Amino acid sequence: MKSMRNAGELMELLQLPDKIPRPLAVSTMRCPLLGRIHFVRDPKGIMQLLCVFIYWLYGTFSSLFIIILPRYAEGYISGIFVTAFMSISLLCLTSLVRVSTLNPGRIPPSTAVSIHENEHWTYCRMCNSMRPQRAHHCRRCGQCVMRMDHHCPWINNCVGEENHYAFFLLLLYAFLLSAVVFLLCMLHFWVYPKCQQCDKDAFYVRHSIWFLYLLTLLAANMTLVMGIQLIGQHFNLLIDRTTLENMQQSPDPNRIHLRSTFTAYEEMCGRKRSMMFLWLFPCKRKTVISRGVSSQTV
Ligand SMILES: [Zn+2]
Ligand SMILES: [Zn+2]
After folding, report:
1. pTM of this structure
2. Distance between CA atoms of 292 and 161, rounded to whole angstroms?
3. pLDDT tens, 141-185?
4. How far apart are the CA of 54 and the centre of ligand 2, in A?
5. Ligand nearest to the CA of 160
């Protein structure tokens, strides 16, 4: 035990990384619809991403076939509601695809910087390259990321300057979808009468009670988790702090500077005021080039 502590202290004194640097675990490729995509080759992360996709699939289609379509046929639910539900669900899936495949703002290896920039930049011993302020090294991806918020295993990617808006949209649409599904389950259990037009022999109708118990549990859990995450991310944006920065050091209440909501979201989404409606869509790539490094070149 004593020798282990000594080894740790020696590492600290010598300023050496305490683990062997991992090679870059990221692949990039061109995709017809999405452009250049960025993919982290992490088997555990891929499994977790798959779980999120299965939740989306289960939540959307069990609600659709067990509650929404039968109640629409009976006149309890309007066509506008069905369209809105499917739109939120598709936006949720698109946000998931975008946030997990977008380059989060990788710093190119061996970034060449001018002497002036060097004064404010720091050196990453893992990547052996210079990085701007607020960039952090992700050990899971083996790369430095601009204004890194955190590495999220559920999207199998880092959340950084370039994909933060897609992450925020994912939280927003996952929250909305889960809240609507939970509300539908409550209406099904407590308000709607027994379904008359349902196909009683269909597998999902015969076992609907178990499908709906699981759906209610998942929807309640996700509404709570996504709601808390959304509020946390919103306040982080207002005080211009990242999750990692808060974990390293709690914000000092005397030095907190609250930005306006518009300024905070404009910086994250990086689009002109006239195009504000695009803030709600995860399809358009952010085009802001900041802090001297553009991920377009990575
Ligand atoms: Zn690094
Ligand atoms: Zn990462």
Report:
1. 0.84
2. 13
3. 888 999 999 999 999 999 999 999 999 999 999 999 999 999 999
4. 22
5. 2
Express each pLDDT in 43-95 by its tens digit.
999 999 999 999 999 999 999 999 999 999 999 999 999 999 999 999 999 99
Q: Give the domain ranges of the chain.
A: 16-104+158-293
Q: Which residues pair with 177 in a beta bridge?
A: none
Ligand nearest to the CA of 244: 2
**DSSP 8-state code for residue 290:** B
In angstroms, the CA 163 to CA 173 distance is: 16
Residue 33's alpha-carbon distances to 30, 36, 106, 251, in angstroms, are 9, 9, 22, 41
CA distance 259 to 188: 43
Type of residue at 66: I
Q: How far apart are CA 195 and CA 218, in angstroms?
A: 23
Question: Ligand 1 center to residue 252 CA distance, Å?
Answer: 27
Residues with CB under 5 Å of ion ligand 2 are 138, 140-141, 151, 158
Which residues form the catalytic set? 152
Residues 6+ apart with CB under 8 A from 159: 99, 104, 148, 149, 150, 151, 152, 167, 243
Distance 254 CA to ligand 1 centre (A): 32
- Which strand (E) or helix (H) includes residue 202? none
For ligand 2, the distance from its centroid to the CA atom of residue 137, given in whole angstroms, is: 8
